[in-house]
């Protein structure tokens, strides 16, 4: 879906998500949301906060799982995805803190942590709605080129392009972590409904590759072509090459 601008795209999606949360809650169970970081979801989180303030969306019966987290950042680092989520969404809504799950980039036993993360998603009943951005390498989460279709939550190595894109927020490439923990492509594709957001002309080429190119592990977002309920929400610039 191509919108005139990102605000319109985010409004449409936020209203749809509020309806989904309320209908799942009305069926007597928590709604399970997969959340994303990066600059792209910021206007979407602003819309969710607005709907919350207007009384149209409650997170009281919502469980969240974030896609990924950098490895090796000191606790409380402002660029950690935990700090990002707190600042940009959780501090402004009524989510119980015990319902928030974000991979922990400071653990020593990474494989055990990843296994426990996958189990927590299963125990919550699976993800109802997964939000995604897209990196210039075509990654979803931090599933860089070469990530298998059936990959699960694990330690990943960041592509040089991804680290270059993150360098300004870290105050230089040398401060950008080299590794992360990320949900796998298989984990993401099990979500029942998926929305990928992309804005601006810098994303136009990779959006076209993901949507109309071959389905390949070289562009992990291309796996979404085979998902039964995945939608791209684009502004006019990101959709310009379609
Ligand atoms: C990081 C995140 C992704 C995000 C991507 C794009 O790599 N792990 O989830 O989609 O950046 O970032 P931005 O939205 O800032 O363009």
From TrEMBL:
The keyword Magnesium does not apply. Residues 5-225 form the Glucosamine/galactosamine-6-phosphate isomerase domain. It is an enzyme of class 3 (hydrolase). GO terms for molecular function: glucosamine-6-phosphate deaminase activity. Its EC number is 3.5.99.6. It holds the Pfam family Glucosamine_iso. CDD domains: GlcN6P_deaminase (cd01399). It comes from the Bacteria. Keywords: Hydrolase. NCBIfam families: nagB. This is Glucosamine-6-phosphate deaminase. The lineage of its organism: Bacteria, Pseudomonadati, Verrucomicrobiota, Verrucomicrobiia, Verrucomicrobiales. The gene is nagB.
């Amino acid at each position: 879906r191509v919108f005139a601008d990102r605000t319109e795209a985010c409004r449409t999606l936020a209203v749809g998500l509020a309806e989904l949360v309320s209908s799942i809650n009305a069926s007597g169970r928590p709604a399970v949301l997969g959340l994303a970081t990066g600059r792209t979801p910021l206007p979407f989180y602003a819309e969710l906060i607005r709907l919350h303030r207007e009384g149209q969306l409650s997170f009281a019966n919502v469980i969240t799982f974030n896609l990924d987290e950098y490895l090796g950042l000191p606790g409380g680092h402002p660029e950690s995805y935990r700090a990002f989520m707190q600042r940009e969404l959780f501090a402004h809504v009524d989510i119980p803190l015990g319902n928030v799950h974000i991979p922990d980039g400071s653990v020593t036993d990474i494989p055990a942590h990843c296994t426990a993360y996958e189990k927590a998603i299963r125990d919550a009943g699976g993800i109802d709605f997964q939000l995604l951005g897209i990196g210039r390498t075509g990654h979803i989460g931090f599933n860089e080129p070469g990530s298998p279709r059936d990959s699960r939550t694990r330690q990943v190595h960041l592509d040089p392009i991804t680290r270059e894109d993150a360098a300004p927020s870290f105050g230089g490439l040398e401060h950008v972590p080299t590794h992360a923990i990320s949900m796998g492509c298989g984990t993401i594709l099990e979500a029942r409904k998926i929305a990928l957001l992309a804005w601006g002309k810098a994303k136009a080429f990779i959006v076209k590759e993901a949507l109309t190119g071959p389905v390949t592990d070289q562009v992990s977002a291309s796996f979404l072509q085979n998902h039964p309920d995945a939608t791209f929400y684009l502004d006019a610039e990101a959709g310009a090459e379609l």
